[in-house]
């Protein structure tokens, strides 16, 4: 069992994970990339299918081209590193769950090294653009891009705090039953 201090530090690390979309230009060291990919590789998946591959991109022109693809990935234009998740495209529902687990673990592994990360999604048309830029077969699913780099805290502080708040637990947690037993199900 972890001692109280270690547990507190781990919980603070997990709770503190936030999206980073503003980056300093410093490159992400290869050792960090290796750790991120190693943690990603060990992500659990439905039936242990491991339905993923990764395209790791450092080239500035490619990052800019991906950022311009139809979707919500504009922050990749100024990131020193991008990872495109390439999903097998065989089991849509399971793979979308697996993709979420994978994304979060990539972010956490990066954060363990003090490297920030921001998820972005391509729209279907943007995903086709990405496939053609990167040479990904059409039958694969491409949806998620993760931009990585050291956070530019000055620029982060300046952006609107849209995602700052979280709902209080009192709104989210139900003890034993969702509704009291004497209420009809809506
Ligand atoms: C499934 C999923 C898709 C997301 N897509 C995008 C996106 O397309 N562009 C983007 O900037 N952020 C995207 N995000 C990041 C969320 O906007 C972010 O997690 C949320 O605003 C909370 O921000 P915070 O962690 O900084 O509080 C996505 C996150 C998830 C889980």
Overall tally of domains = 1
What does the average pLDDT come to? 95
The topology string of helices and strands comes to HHEHEHEHEHH
Task: Please report the first level of CATH classification, the CATH class.
Answer: Alpha Beta
**What ligands does this structure carry?**
flavin mononucleotide
For this structure, the quaternary state is single chain
Q: Quickly count the helices.
A: 7
Class inferred from helices and paired strands? alpha+beta
Instruction: Give a count of the beta strands, DSSP E runs of length 2 or more.
Output: 4
Distance between the termini: 43 Å
What's the short version?
By secondary structure, this protein is of the alpha+beta class. The chain is built from seven helices and four strands. The protein has a four-stranded antiparallel sheet with strand order 1-2-4-3, with helices on both faces.
Give an account of the 3D structure.
The chain is α+β, with helices and mostly antiparallel strands. It has one domain: 3-Layer(aba) Sandwich (NADH Oxidase), CATH 3.40.109. It is globular. The longest helix has 21 residues, at 92-112. It has helices at 4-15, 30-41, 60-67, 92-112, 124-134, 153-158, 169-172, and strands at 52-57, 81-87, 116-121, 141-149. It contains seven helices and four strands, in the order ααβαβαβαβαα. Helix 2 packs antiparallel against helix 4. The protein has a four-stranded antiparallel β-sheet, with helices on both faces. Bound molecules: flavin mononucleotide. Flavin mononucleotide (FMN) binds at residues 18-19, 21, 72, 75, 118-121, 163.
